């Protein structure tokens, strides 16, 4: 196996395309969880993914940074194809930040330490500089005053904002969100969505699995509906919500809107 990052040559489009998924399939054992996924995400594009529970949303976005392995087809992120090549996987993970439903902060580290750990140990950023960058992002998510606290001392909404700040400290070019507000009490959802809206306005390429349709209408360039491991329908938000084409999409929307 080569130890160099293997770049896929796609002259002309490489600057504009952040993620390209071509004919991708995934199985969990015998279970065919993702079926012929085709998706091109332009740089700076904001995509919302929705669909019923179990439709494969998490699996699809987890494949994009190889938290799950696909078995067929191609996933290309910033010109780098996700294969078994560890250098490729590392290079892609450097580009892609991810936030989960359950914030996954380190409970024994302070907020500031959560934000500086990876920059210091993975990126070899000097501690003082890492702390300065972390404070900048904690400011952006409006919780600089919580820097010395431990995650357990914060509300869910605050913890999720720390998780977002922590991802941003690694300077990702692409952010993946997997239902970042679905574990939160209603009064905390808005504060996390506001941070995500602000991030979207910076031009970050984003894929967000969420059922927050207000967020989708406000920031999404495209809404994707998944069911049964397939992308059933996609459209710009206005068309998607007002004029859903497939019966399954219509039925899903009637349940959540
Ligand atoms: P969603 O995020 O849309 O709710 P998931 O991607 O989590 O859906 O799951 C899609 C399907 O794959 C579900 O039927 C789920 O039970 C199954 N699944 C998820 N993770 C695993 C796993 N590690 N092993 C086997 N089946 C799984
Ligand atoms: Mg999920």
TrEMBL record:
Keywords in alphabetical order: ATP-binding, Nucleotide-binding, Transport
Location of the ABC transporter domain: 19-253
Cited SMART domains: AAA
Pfam family, one: ABC_tran
InterPro entries in the record: AAA+_ATPase (IPR003593), ABC_ATPase_HisP-typ (IPR030679), ABC_transporter-like_ATP-bd (IPR003439), ABC_transporter-like_CS (IPR017871), MetN_ABC_transporter-like (IPR050086), P-loop_NTPase (IPR027417)
GO molecular function, one term: ATP binding
SUPFAM superfamilies linked: P-loop containing nucleoside triphosphate hydrolases (SSF52540)
Record-stated family: Belongs to the ABC transporter superfamily.
Stated name of the protein: Amino acid ABC transporter ATP-binding protein
Lineage: Bacteria, Pseudomonadati, Pseudomonadota, Alphaproteobacteria, Rhodospirillales
């Amino acid at each position: 196996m080569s130890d160099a990052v293997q770049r896929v040559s796609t002259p002309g489009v490489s600057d504009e395309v952040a993620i390209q998924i071509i004919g991708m399939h995934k199985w969990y054992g015998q279970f065919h969880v993702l079926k012929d996924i085709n998706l091109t995400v332009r740089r700076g594009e904001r995509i919302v993914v929705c669909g019923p529970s179990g439709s494969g949303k998490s699996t699809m976005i987890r494949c994009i940074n190889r938290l799950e392995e696909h078995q067929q087809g191609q996933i290309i992120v910033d010109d780098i194809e996700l294969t078994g090549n560890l250098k490729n996987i590392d290079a892609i993970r450097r580009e892609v930040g991810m936030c989960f439903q359950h914030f996954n902060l380190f409970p024994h580290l302070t907020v500031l330490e959560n934000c500086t750990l990876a920059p210091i140990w993975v990126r070899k950023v000097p501690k003082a500089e890492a702390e300065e960058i972390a404070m900048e992002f904690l400011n952006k998510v409006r919780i600089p005053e919580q820097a010395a606290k431990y995650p357990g001392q914060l509300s869910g909404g605050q913890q999720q904002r720390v998780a977002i700040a922590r991802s941003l400290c690694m300077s990702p070019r692409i952010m993946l969100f997997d239902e970042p507000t679905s574990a939160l009490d209603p009064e905390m959802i808005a504060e996390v969505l506001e941070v995500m809206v602000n991030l979207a306005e910076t031009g970050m390429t984003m894929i967000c699995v969420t059922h927050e349709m207000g967020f989708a209408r406000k920031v999404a360039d495209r809404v994707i509906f998944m069911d049964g491991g397939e992308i059933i329908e996609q459209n710009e938000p206005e068309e998607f919500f007002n004029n859903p084409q497939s019966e399954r999409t219509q039925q899903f929307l009637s349940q959540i809107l």
